[in-house]
Amino acid sequence: MIAVVTASTVISYCLYTISSETIEKFGTRNLIFTVPFVLYGIFRYLYLVHQKNEGGSPELLIITDKPLLIDVFLWIATAILIIYI
């Protein structure tokens, strides 16, 4: 189930970034460049849950895991730069 949900999430996000409605709303086709951050975030979270047994509280995990926190900030910064610049 994890593999199916992970793949579905990534595909859905990719389709969202290239959909005509999203492009029209934000005025850019470049949101596709945020996909690597989403991929890394999902894979990092799965690594922490399955290899490090740190599941249970995803919100705590996001604010305590430095690589994941950096990834979230980079995703936000990239999205802001793409949308507003």
Strand content: under 5%
Main beta sheet: none
- Mean pLDDT, to the nearest integer, reads 95
Helix content: over 70%
Total count of helical runs of at least 4 residues: 5
Order of helices and strands: HHHHH
**Class from helix and strand fractions:** mainly alpha
End-to-end gap? 39 Å
> How many beta-strand runs?
0
Low-confidence stretches: none
Tell me the count of domains. Answer: 1
Q: Choose one word for the global shape.
A: flat
Rg, please? 14 Å
Note down, in words, how this protein is organized:
The structure is a single chain. Helices cover 78% and strands 0% of the residues. With 85 residues, the chain is mainly alpha-helical. It has one domain. The N and C termini lie far apart (39 Å). The mean pLDDT is 95.
What brief labels describe this structure?
85 residues; mainly alpha; 78% helix
Question: Mind sketching the topology for me?
Answer:
Elements lengths: L1 H17 L1 H7 L8 H16 L7 H7 L1 H19 L1
Helix pairs in contact: 1-3, 3-5, 4-5
Short description:
The protein is mainly α.
